[in-house]
Amino acid sequence: ATSCYKAGLVLDRGTDIPRDAAQAKTLYATACDGGAADGCYGLGQLHEEGVGGQPDYLAAREAYDRAVEGGSTEARGALSRLLWQGLGGPRRKGRARELAEEACQLGDRRACQGPSFL
Fold first, then answer.
1. Distance CA 91, CA 88 (A)
2. What gap in Å lies between CA 29 and CA 23, rounded to an integer?
3. Tens of pLDDT along the chain (118 residues)?
4. What is the pTM of this model?
5. Which of 17, 79, 83, 114 could be stapled to 96 by a disulfide with Cβ–Cβ 3.0 to 4.6 Å?
């Protein structure tokens, strides 16, 4: 799972090779299914970006949620934002605040800035 995540990251960022977000998405999904929280987070980002079409906020929320379950700090902030805005499902302000506070405590400085979306 970790190697799929790392390969996906290289393709997603276009590090030393042309960016291939579609292939990165496939690799992130494989990593996520294998239990790599970072893979789930990367997958969520690509769903949110709309790689391959329109943004899929529901799929992004689901991927971020799996990443949170796996311990991803960054996913807490990302999921918090989607929950606060009601993207991909109902607004859940209480859960959004909880996730933002957790992310801040875990070192996500963006979440510590009294997130503008809260």
1. 9
2. 10
3. 878 888 888 888 888 899 989 999 999 999 999 999 999 999 999 999 998 889 999 999 999 999 999 999 999 999 999 999 999 999 999 999 999 999 999 998 888 875 554 5
4. 0.89
5. 83
